[in-house]
Specification:
The complex is a heterodimer of chains A (150) and B (564). With 150 residues, chain A is of the alpha+beta class. Chain A has six helices and four strands, in the order E-E-H-H-H-E-H-H-E-H. The model of chain A has no long low-confidence stretch (mean pLDDT 91). The chains are: A alpha+beta (150), B alpha+beta (564).
Chain lengths: 150, 564
Amino acid sequence: MIRFAGAVKGKLRHPYIYAIVKSYCLYIGETQQHPVSRWGQHMTLGGTFLQRLKEADEEVWSRNEDILFLCVDCERIAILSPEEHRLVTRYVEHKVHEKCILNLPMLKPIEKIISDTTRTAPARCRYSWGDDLASQVFNEIIAQLGHGHQ
Amino acid sequence: MKEISIPMNAVRVCNAIARIGYEPHSALMDIIDNSVAAEALNVRVFVDLLPGKTINQRNNVALYRIVDDGKGMDDAGIQNAFKLGSEADYKPNSLSKYGMGLKSAGFSLGTRIQLISKKNGNLSPKYFLDRKIIEEKNDYVVCCDELSPQEKTEYETLLSDCLSGTVLEITGCGEIYHTSAKTTIDKLKHRLGVTYYPFLSAPEGERLQITLTYPGEEAHHIQPFDILFTQDADTGFDPSNYTGSRPCYAFKNEWKVPSIGEAEVPPIRLEVVTFPKGGMAESASPLAEEEKARIRSYRISREYKGFFIYRNGRLIRWGDDLGIVGKDEIGFRARMELTTAHDDVLHVDVSKQRLEMDDQTRKDFDVLMRLPRKQARQVFEICEGLLSKGAGEGIGFSETADSIPEEDPVEDVTPPDPQEKKQRAKKQEEESKKTQEEICDKKSGEAIIVTPEEEIFRRVRYSDNLHGMNLWSAQKDTIQGTYVLINRRHAFYQSVISNLDESSPERLALEAIIFCCAVGENRTYENLTNVDGDSIRKVFDRYYTVFSFNLGEWAGGNQHIFEK
């Protein structure tokens, strides 16, 4: 018996927002490369995701249970000039954090967001669609959580 | 199992509840809460002073009286109100919570709390809780006494406009260490409009009215005060176009906090507005007078920064930084609207004046407030830039010139001949008047002393029409004293001064040097009366000619240093 564990399709260099979920903990991040390379870093012992998870709940960290990886390809950002990609993606990443915090009950079973944007959030986005894009990413996270990926 | 009822020490309990951290104004507001909870629409607060005390003295209050037109209480209701932890049948989102407010707030203000209430036209006897009697009896006893005919008339008059209502009186106030009545009244005037803003600005028929009566003022009406000035606030912030004249929204959202159990918790409404620097209202600001006046009304200061937290429409926390807002983020102002449902999530404490977030909630909140805080800092940076550019050449320095006494430190040692001094001063003033007219003739409106918009006398003025090639010319005004005209045609102005922002520290320092040279010249001419006046003039003329020539040569030959 087998179980399909998921597939990720995307360009090697492109702006992505991703989410990693284990139990009730959610980590949100951004990357300008195919997310699997970033996820690989997160999964190493010193990786940020595992570190934050251990800080948040050592028991959840130690359990051998499903970890969900989600990513959204931000095509709207990709059409901007390359030097703007990171700044705009980071703004959207921060706004996704904001939306998740403001609407945490909608993200059930998520109870805790273990990532933050302390060092990375830019003050603003010169594009008015930045907030809309964040809403789309947020809705996609909700949809994927709702699809029973938990 | 044996159940043992433990009696309480009434005196110690009363001492404890009186000291849960009230200031007189906050205690009075907790009592006003009871009136609001009793559906009163008119609340009158009276403060009477002890005989012989002034309003500014400490411990000067004889009586606090709060009269409302709420639903009133019958005898059982009054007795319940005096109960420690009174039985509650609160409406949803009532301002009351634990049934302790009347006793704790009352005993923080005085030693005796008295209630007289009218219910459907029937006036109750007077009920009172007196700490001295409680001490004597060592029991928590409420006393009841019939009203004397005079008292009956007095309370009937106070409650004549309403079918039901309550009069609460607190006496024995002089026995408790208090700030002055003036301080309490000022704080109430200042804070009631903010504290009850939603109630005071409710639609007609539901609108609360609060009046304050105290020695010196009869019925001061409290006006609603929107701490965020949402009517004035721009919906967004664009740093490239920001003029520093208006507040801007930085955040407006609803925060759906996770609930405990099944019951759904309503969202917390959160609004953040960032305000321009208070300095934008001062004369160095490039804004128009009307805009400056508006900015002054925002009261931008440390006292008015942070989170203004409302619970059920009533402010419970004034300008709290919640461990998030930095001490210099003065332009950051937020309104957080909670209801009773958030009490547990945010740990609202017994006096309802504090809330404690757990670490996770605080961390999430920190993320939410990150960009609004950045905006607040950026708004201030832009304002600083605008202020350093100034409102016109010389205005920035003129604002600082009060600290220059224009004195001659050797005048006392070698006193001048008063007659000669007077003549020389008069001569100088006449010459300055002539110079001013000449300059104004050449270019209308230039070098006006005081414009209608600015109330400041310009001690340093700039002119394109100054006679000669000296860098400056010392002048004297009959009333204001020395001022100086700086020559815009001089190379030092063109290469150096004009490249500095109008209110930059460097420009102010140069203007201070030039102004003090002019003071030195004027004072020397007036006070050195044992030297012939014309000779002094000749020395100064020659000195400034040589000085200005050499400085001009240097400035002309080194223009690259100051080019922007």
